């Protein structure tokens, strides 16, 4: 089991990474929250079906309580946030209680927001079960969705630890692999051309990722995320670079209906669009067609869904939390590893969407 220290302005906490390390979880809880009065697990139906008994077994001495939400992006809502809060109150959690977010990005965001707001903030541990969560579980951004925008209601609330056992990947459907790998590609594009080329050379199928390749790309992605979070915890500067592809990606998710297009797949389309804008406005030298060909071979759709209206997408992009004064701010690239924030005019966005 490897330990990576995640440093932010408000807190430093460990991320534990390994394969088949679930039995070490009680030891981790004891080290980071030795005075926990109660343990509250928030998970989803699919994760609970596959791994709920295993988690209950290793935590039997802690007598945890558990709330299970439906699987899928639609559960990251005010209704389920309210239900989790009600459950916590009914079971008399107090300020020394500990929440375990056991699942993918949806569970992590929802459970983290519950922890951030219950009794004005209690401790939680992220136990991610998906590749996507290597990004979302690090950095303390927690939120729920609103019909008018993704992740618009939330907080910054750092966990006590992240406990990342990649054995959970063995049950991931290919769609979840694609969703998570989209964020890996993002980390490469904003940080390191050699990492981007390594991914192209070594990842030729998401159904058969060799274990050493998996561990390398997860560790590399975590270090990219951790370095940016260390420099800018609350997204006042460079942390915004982690949003490459997200401005259009979030709009696609919202317009399609949350869960219809997975987060990572929407981000891939958004990244391709951001690269095209970068070529137009920043003079980026980049072979977008080569990228599209590689991603298509991995099972991605690389085009904006034809059913979505471009003007409505623009409206959603204008309302995205990364935009100001109804202008669209986008993360663009001057080169691989050289991201910048730019305000992009409506005409440029609509003309490139129409290509």
TrEMBL record:
<keyword id="KW-0456">Lyase</keyword>
<dbReference type="InterPro" id="IPR056179">
    <property type="entry name" value="DHQS_C"/>
</dbReference>
<feature type="binding site">
    <location>
        <begin position="129"/>
        <end position="130"/>
    </location>
    <ligand>
        <name>NAD(+)</name>
    </ligand>
</feature>
<feature type="binding site">
    <location>
        <position position="141"/>
    </location>
    <ligand>
        <name>NAD(+)</name>
    </ligand>
</feature>
<dbReference type="GO" id="GO:0003856">
    <property type="term" value="F:3-dehydroquinate synthase activity"/>
</dbReference>
<feature type="binding site">
    <location>
        <begin position="105"/>
        <end position="109"/>
    </location>
    <ligand>
        <name>NAD(+)</name>
    </ligand>
</feature>
<keyword id="KW-0862">Zinc</keyword>
<dbReference type="GO" id="GO:0005737">
    <property type="term" value="C:cytoplasm"/>
</dbReference>
<feature type="binding site">
    <location>
        <position position="263"/>
    </location>
    <ligand>
        <name>Zn(2+)</name>
    </ligand>
</feature>
<dbReference type="Pfam" id="PF24621">
    <property type="entry name" value="DHQS_C"/>
</dbReference>
<feature type="transmembrane region" description="Helical">
    <location>
        <begin position="98"/>
        <end position="119"/>
    </location>
</feature>
<dbReference type="GO" id="GO:0008652">
    <property type="term" value="P:amino acid biosynthetic process"/>
</dbReference>
<keyword id="KW-0479">Metal-binding</keyword>
<dbReference type="InterPro" id="IPR016037">
    <property type="entry name" value="DHQ_synth_AroB"/>
</dbReference>
<dbReference type="GO" id="GO:0046872">
    <property type="term" value="F:metal ion binding"/>
</dbReference>
<dbReference type="GO" id="GO:0009073">
    <property type="term" value="P:aromatic amino acid family biosynthetic process"/>
</dbReference>
<protein>
    <recommendedName>
        <fullName>3-dehydroquinate synthase</fullName>
        <ecNumber>4.2.3.4</ecNumber>
    </recommendedName>
</protein>
<dbReference type="GO" id="GO:0000166">
    <property type="term" value="F:nucleotide binding"/>
</dbReference>
<feature type="binding site">
    <location>
        <begin position="71"/>
        <end position="76"/>
    </location>
    <ligand>
        <name>NAD(+)</name>
    </ligand>
</feature>
<keyword id="KW-0812">Transmembrane</keyword>
<feature type="binding site">
    <location>
        <position position="150"/>
    </location>
    <ligand>
        <name>NAD(+)</name>
    </ligand>
</feature>
<comment type="pathway">
    <text>Metabolic intermediate biosynthesis; chorismate biosynthesis; chorismate from D-erythrose 4-phosphate and phosphoenolpyruvate: step 2/7.</text>
</comment>
<feature type="domain" description="3-dehydroquinate synthase N-terminal">
    <location>
        <begin position="67"/>
        <end position="178"/>
    </location>
</feature>
<dbReference type="GO" id="GO:0009423">
    <property type="term" value="P:chorismate biosynthetic process"/>
</dbReference>
<keyword id="KW-0963">Cytoplasm</keyword>
<feature type="binding site">
    <location>
        <position position="246"/>
    </location>
    <ligand>
        <name>Zn(2+)</name>
    </ligand>
</feature>
<keyword id="KW-0028">Amino-acid biosynthesis</keyword>
<feature type="domain" description="3-dehydroquinate synthase C-terminal">
    <location>
        <begin position="180"/>
        <end position="323"/>
    </location>
</feature>
<keyword id="KW-0170">Cobalt</keyword>
<dbReference type="Pfam" id="PF01761">
    <property type="entry name" value="DHQ_synthase"/>
</dbReference>
<keyword id="KW-0547">Nucleotide-binding</keyword>
<dbReference type="InterPro" id="IPR050071">
    <property type="entry name" value="Dehydroquinate_synthase"/>
</dbReference>
<keyword id="KW-0057">Aromatic amino acid biosynthesis</keyword>
<keyword id="KW-0472">Membrane</keyword>
<dbReference type="InterPro" id="IPR030963">
    <property type="entry name" value="DHQ_synth_fam"/>
</dbReference>
<dbReference type="InterPro" id="IPR030960">
    <property type="entry name" value="DHQS/DOIS_N"/>
</dbReference>
<keyword id="KW-0520">NAD</keyword>
<keyword id="KW-1133">Transmembrane helix</keyword>
<comment type="similarity">
    <text>Belongs to the sugar phosphate cyclases superfamily. Dehydroquinate synthase family.</text>
</comment>
<comment type="function">
    <text>Catalyzes the conversion of 3-deoxy-D-arabino-heptulosonate 7-phosphate (DAHP) to dehydroquinate (DHQ).</text>
</comment>
<feature type="binding site">
    <location>
        <position position="183"/>
    </location>
    <ligand>
        <name>Zn(2+)</name>
    </ligand>
</feature>
């Amino acid at each position: 089991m490897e330990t990576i220290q995640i440093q932010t302005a408000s807190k430093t906490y460990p991320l534990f990474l390994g394969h088949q390390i679930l039995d070490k979880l009680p030891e981790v809880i004891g080290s980071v929250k030795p005075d926990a009065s109660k343990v509250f697990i928030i998970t989803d139906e699919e994760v609970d079906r596959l791994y709920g008994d295993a988690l209950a077994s290793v935590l039997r001495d802690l007598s945890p309580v558990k709330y299970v939400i439906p699987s899928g992006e639609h559960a990251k809502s005010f209704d389920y946030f309210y239900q989790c809060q009600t459950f916590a109150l009914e079971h008399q959690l107090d300020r020394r209680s500990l929440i375990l977010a056991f699942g993918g990005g949806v569970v992590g965001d929802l459970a983290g927001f519950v922890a951030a707001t219950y009794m004005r903030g209690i401790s939680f541990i992220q136990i991610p079960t998906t590749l996507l969560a290597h990004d979302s579980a690090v950095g303390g951004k927690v939120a729920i969705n609103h019909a008018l925008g993704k992740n618009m209601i939330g907080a910054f609330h750092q966990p006590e630890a992240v406990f990342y056992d990649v054995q959970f990947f063995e049950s991931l459907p290919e769609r979840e692999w694609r969703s998570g790998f989209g964020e890996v590609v993002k980390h490469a594009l904003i940080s390191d051309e050699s990492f981007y080329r390594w991914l192209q050379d070594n990842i030729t199928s998401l159904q058969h990722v060799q274990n050493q390749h998996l561990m390398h790309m997860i560790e590399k992605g975590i270090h990219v995320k951790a370095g940016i979070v260390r420099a800018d915890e609350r997204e006042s500067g460079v942390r915004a670079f982690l949003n490459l592809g997200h401005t259009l990606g979030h709009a696609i998710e919202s317009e399609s209906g949350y869960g219809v297009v997975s987060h990572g797949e929407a981000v891939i389309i958004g990244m391709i669009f951001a690269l095209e804008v970068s070529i137009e406005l920043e003079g980026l030298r980049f072979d977008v067609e080569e990228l599209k060909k590689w991603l298509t071979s991995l099972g991605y759709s690389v085009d904006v869904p034809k059913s979505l209206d471009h003007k409505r997408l623009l409206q959603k992009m204008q309302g995205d939390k990364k935009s100001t004064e109804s202008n669209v701010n986008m993360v663009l690239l001057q080169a691989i590893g050289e991201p910048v924030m730019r305000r992009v005019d409506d005409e440029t966005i609509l003309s490139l969407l129409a290509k």
